[in-house]
Amino acid sequence: MGHSLSGLVLRKARPGTVFHRLARRMHPPKMVAYDGWKVLAHPCDNHTEYWLALYGAPPESETYAFLLSEIRGKRVEFFDIGANNGVYSLMVSTHAHPRSTILAFEPNPEMLRRLRRNIALSQARNITVMPFAVGEDSGTMALKIPRYRFRELGSASLLDQGSAFTETRVTVTTLAATLPARQPDCDLRALKIDVEGYEDRALYSYLSQAPVAELPDIIIIEYVHGSYWTRDLYGVFRDRDFAEVARVEGNIILRRQA
Question: Is the pLDDT reported for residue 125 higher than 90?
Fold first, then answer.
């Protein structure tokens, strides 16, 4: 099924139906250029790439626009935890100061491969790929990846997901052990995290214990799986002087009050 026919079916069919799923599965990878960066999008098994292939833009338009307005032209230290296919890292690389530091964390082997390819396609030279998950302790853990035909690779998680997932052992690091010290000429330190319900384990210890000078100025965190959180992230946000700016597209945007 070619781009035009499968794309037409995807637009016309109701999401979740057999026709929609088949069209999505059969839609070939598509090169997408957007906002100065480029990716090869696979719509069949990843929501972000599906959206890029179908609409030519990332799905989280408001979150994207907010971060873009904050980083444009600045020397940024950006930490992308759960980088997926690289949309946010590529945006920061394209629009922040060329000497910005970008760490893109992605443990899923297939998404890691796509992330590296997209960085090469966009000729983004200031992104460092971190092939790790982020958690409370360093070591290895089982990453649960959807295994059925109509899978969502973006749903991979360190949480127990049940029989619909297959397990892959991945290296886990901590933010305390990995994030560099803030440089004197850094204009903005920002962190985006989307790790399917494991956000609290990845962030809590670091945000609780890091020196004030090392804390991010901005945090963007997906909260739709917040029912899985067992650490009081909202309490640590309050204690470390983070104020909520907005809730949009399943994300909470926080800014640290100076």
Answer: yes
Other C-beta atoms closer than 10 Å to the C-beta of 97 total 17
Assigned token pair, 113: 């491969």
Give pLDDT, residue 44. 86
Which residue in the block uniquely carries the two structure tokens 């873009």? 68
- 254 vs 31: CA distance, rounded Å: 33
> Rounded CA gap, 52 and 109, in Å?
21
> How many Å separate Cα 32 from the centre of its chain?
18
pLDDT at residue 1 greater than cutoff 50:
no
The full 3-state SS of the chain, as one line of letters, equals: CCHHHHHHHHHHCCCCCHHHHHHHHHCCCEEEEECCEEEEECCCCCHHHHHHHHHCCCCCHHHHHHHHHHHCCCCEEEEEECCCCCHHHHHHHHHCCCCCEEEEECCCHHHHHHHHHHHHHCCCCCEEEECCEECCCCEEEEEEEECCCCCCHHHCECCCCCCCEEEEEEEEECHHHHCCCCCCCCCEEEEEECCCCCHHHHHHHHHHHCCHHHCCCEEEEECCCHHHCCCCHHHHHHHCCEEEEEEECCEEEEEECC
* Domains (range + CATH), the chain: 59-256 (3.40.50.150)
> Mean of the per-residue pLDDT values for the chain?
91
**What is the C-alpha to C-alpha distance for residues 88 and 181, in angstroms, rounded to an integer?**
21
pLDDT value at 3 more than 60: no
- Tokens 């690289």 sit on residue: 86
